[in-house]
Amino acid sequence: MDMNTIAAIATAPGEAGIGIVRISGKRAVEIGDKIFKGKRISKLSDSKQRYLNYGYIVDPKSGEKIDEVLIVYMKEPYTYTTEDIVEINCHGGIISVRRILEIVLENGATMAEAGEFTKRAFLNGRIDLSQAEAVIDLISAKTDISFNVSLNQLEGSLSKEISVLRNKVLEMLAHIQASIDFPEHDEEYATYQQLKENGEYILLKIQQLLDTVYAGKILREGLKTVILGKPNVGKSSLLNRVLRENRSIVTDIPGTTRDIIEEYVNIKGIPLKIVDTAGIRETDDIIERIGVDRAKALIDKSDLIIAVFDASSNLTKEDMEIIKLASYKKSIVLLNKTDLNNKICSQDIKKHLPDTKIINTSMITGTGIEILENTLKDMFFTGEIKIKEDVIVNNVRHRDQLLKAKENIEDALSAVISELSYDLIEVDLKNCWENLGQITGETIGEDLIDKIFQDFCIGK
Ligand code: GDP
């Protein structure tokens, strides 16, 4: 494919030790030759491949030294994009990378679009679409588990599964084609039976992939968690304890009235996205601050409620309100302050929330925290997830295609079972084959591809 030579800053903006400008395409080395003056070599093209060369970037127009750099060139096809790549390591901060990028652009490169390096890796056939999408997920991963899931996908775990399934569908299509072309071979019974077995196998496999979607969503987006409880029961103490013992990543989301803080806490590999912690910290009480209706709306959007009660005092009207809210969703109840004299016990809550796990805790001594963490893990992942071996679908686009593929294979199966004409079965199978191909990008339109890569950052 003949494509222009692209360039971009590959490192994040801001002060840092080094910054990297990356160039990919046929003219990469030629551009490097124009702008690099080495200590040992005069031209980049004289350098050994994949060898870091020390020298300067110099503006060829003015002869002005721009920065002291290390530069490497990697020859096609064994590179990220499969094209010639030149990478310039310069001083970090915004000035050097920007000036170098400007000079690179002046000397023959065009500015890369978001994700264009990865898009080229895809268009040039080095990776398929699901692998390219894994690259974004790697970059935005919030926990070790979600990173590992994406790394697996980048290495082709999902692609392999999809390709096995597509081959099975193709096998079925070949059977059908043969029966249409040679109807005199009266082997219909065997063929229908065979089609049924294959179809059932494909359906089962698709369903198994779909079964991982929920875990995938949580790994990707975090388990949206709301901590509820009247003032002084120990919500902030819980949060602080959990944050202290686990790494957290804070993200600010611009809200309409004020910034809502979302905090990701990594608990046993599960990213817990604690919603509106700012509210908990500032006013001690979500319900008081935002009102019952808004609390309900917030709860509606969450995956989990952790309701906290003070075991050392009797349940109040406010507590009952919280019990009611907790009954709307998956929830865990903490009976806190059990290091003091208990006035209430789990039975008092169990009466109202029979299916909810109730844990005795003390934020002072740390009692119950381990149980809470294990409960969370068991609630959301049945059985041990084997990230290294299992394929986990964590992408909405993949899920949607799998759902369509499932529908089509189900239609094909019911047509097979009713022994309908082959033509009808063939249509469903072809659709299923296409749906699966959209995941890996083999059967996908250009506009969709563009849309997917728009989500990337520039320079990746
Ligand atoms: P919040 O208003 O629900 O966020 O409650 P805080 O976490 O601010 O706790 C209120 C008070 O209760 C603080 O003085 C805490 O030190 C105390 N507290 C929290 N958890 C416990 C606990 O398990 N045992 C005891 N004895 N005190 C606690």
Percent strand: 15-25%
Q: Calculate Rg over CA atoms.
A: 29 Å
Quick one: CATH class of the largest domain? Alpha Beta
In total, how many beta strands?
A: 14
What does the main sheet amount to? 7 strands, mixed
The second-level CATH architecture of the largest domain is 3-Layer(aba) Sandwich
Number of helices: 17
Give the distinct bound molecules: guanosine-5'-diphosphate
Low-confidence stretches: 250-260, 277-283
Strand numbers in spatial order across the main sheet: 3-4-5-6-2-1-7
CA-CA gap between termini: 20 Å
Kindly report the average pLDDT value: 86
| Shape call | flat
As a percent range, the share of helical residues equals: 40-55%
Q: Which topology of the largest domain does CATH recognise? A: Rossmann fold
The chain-level structural class is alpha/beta
Structure, briefly:
This protein has 460 residues and is an alpha/beta fold. It has helices spanning 28-35, 94-106, 116-123, 129-140, 144-154, 157-181, 188-210, 213-221, 235-245, 277-283, 286-300, 317-326, 346-350, 369-380, 396-417, 422-440, 446-454; strands at 6-9, 18-24, 36-38, 53-58, 65-74, 85-91, 110-111, 223-228, 248-253, 260-267, 270-275, 304-310, 331-336, 357-360.
Description:
- It is a single chain.
- With 460 residues, the chain is of the alpha/beta class.
- The chain has 3 domains: 6-112, Probable tRNA modification gtpase trme, domain 1 (Gyrase A, domain 2); 134-212 and 393-443, Up-down Bundle (Four Helix Bundle (Hemerythrin (Met), subunit A)); 226-382, P-loop containing nucleotide triphosphate hydrolases (Rossmann fold, 3-Layer(aba) Sandwich), CATH 3.40.50.
- 48% of the residues lie in helices and 18% in strands.
- It has helices spanning 28-35, 94-106, 116-123, 129-140, 144-154, 157-181, 188-210, 213-221, 235-245, 277-283, 286-300, 317-326, 346-350, 369-380, 396-417, 422-440, 446-454, and strands spanning 6-9, 18-24, 36-38, 53-58, 65-74, 85-91, 110-111, 223-228, 248-253, 260-267, 270-275, 304-310, 331-336, 357-360.
- A hairpin with a 6-residue loop joins strand 4 (53-58) and strand 5 (65-74).
- The longest helix is centred in the middle third of the chain and has 25 residues, at 157-181.
- It is flat, with a radius of gyration of 29 Å.
- The two termini are 20 Å apart.
- Residues 250-260 and 277-283 have low confidence and may be disordered.
- It binds guanosine-5'-diphosphate.
- Residues 229, 231-237, 284, 336-337, 339-340, 362-364 line the site of guanosine-5'-diphosphate (GDP).
